[in-house]
Amino acid sequence: MTSDDLRKALSKVKYPGFSRDIISFGLVKSSEVTDGTAHVQLQIQTKDPKIPQQIFQDCHALLDPIFGESGKVIIEIDVQDPPSAGAASGESTAIPGVKKIIAVGSGKGGVGKSTVSSNLAIALSQQGYKVGLLDCDLYGPSVPLMFGVENHQPHADDQDRIIPIEAHGLKLMSMGFLLSDNSPVIVRGPLANRYTQQFLQQVAWGELDILIIDLPPGTGDIQLTLVQTVSLDGAVIVTTPQEVAMIDARKAVSMFAKVNVPILGLVENMAYFECDHGERYHLFGQGGAERECERIKVPLLGRIPLVPIIGKRCDGGEPTALLSPSESKASAAFHDTAHALINHVS
Fold first, then answer.
1. Per the CATH hierarchy, to which homologous superfamily does domain 86-345 belong?
2. Domain 3-80 is in which class?
């Protein structure tokens, strides 16, 4: 086996909890084969001792059978402390002018993550905060439609930075602003990471109290690129009550834990349907989010009802949180969730 063959073999070793391998993450600092002996040097930034241990075992499991009894495999791992994660360290964020960066994620699609992100951003804005919303869902950007600005296109300033679109008092950035309605987004991992980094570092956000980042569903490359690019103050996980959604929500919680991002809490969307007589029906089950929050020791930030007005107003570019909480129970749920979130992150 040559050194190039060794590097190709190491590309099959995944970073625990992610779809990407240790080569594409840049963890392999050197790899060479000398006199039948494989020398591999890795550098990993983590505080979780299980991660380097798992990678060490996976490397040996892959290479030991290849080199056999006559060869030898030497794996050296340099474990370093990761960059601090915003509020956990008290350090400033990596985006100038932005005080707090909060990611909103989910383990699976279809739980209303973008709806929650958009309404949370509006509720925080109406509470007096300067808020930006970054739609990092490259493959299914929905923020432009939800804010009624799907036909807008951003411009650049004199420093060649993207000027975000403004709507309903928020600053917005999304892949949807760069595409026509029917254009599919066909980008592979490295290019998706580049777009994500550009949206984070080359957008003229100005002075913001809070930047909400709407992540794509799942636990893939874009999520890891995000936590490696900026210091997050925490993450909010959106789920629905049924167990099948909870399974994926746990994966999202585990992913953020592996990269030392604190979980600020869970939001249970589509928690119940309330009829005209005031009786509540739990169409997708009851108590799942509460039990999960007790298990992982994080707060349940809010429970959002399943009501037609939420989807209708999002489709019309006027999210529900724009309504007064006194005239809409759905709006009140989003505002209560925003209150709980800002109290917890503070």
1. P-loop containing nucleotide triphosphate hydrolases (3.40.50.300)
2. alpha beta
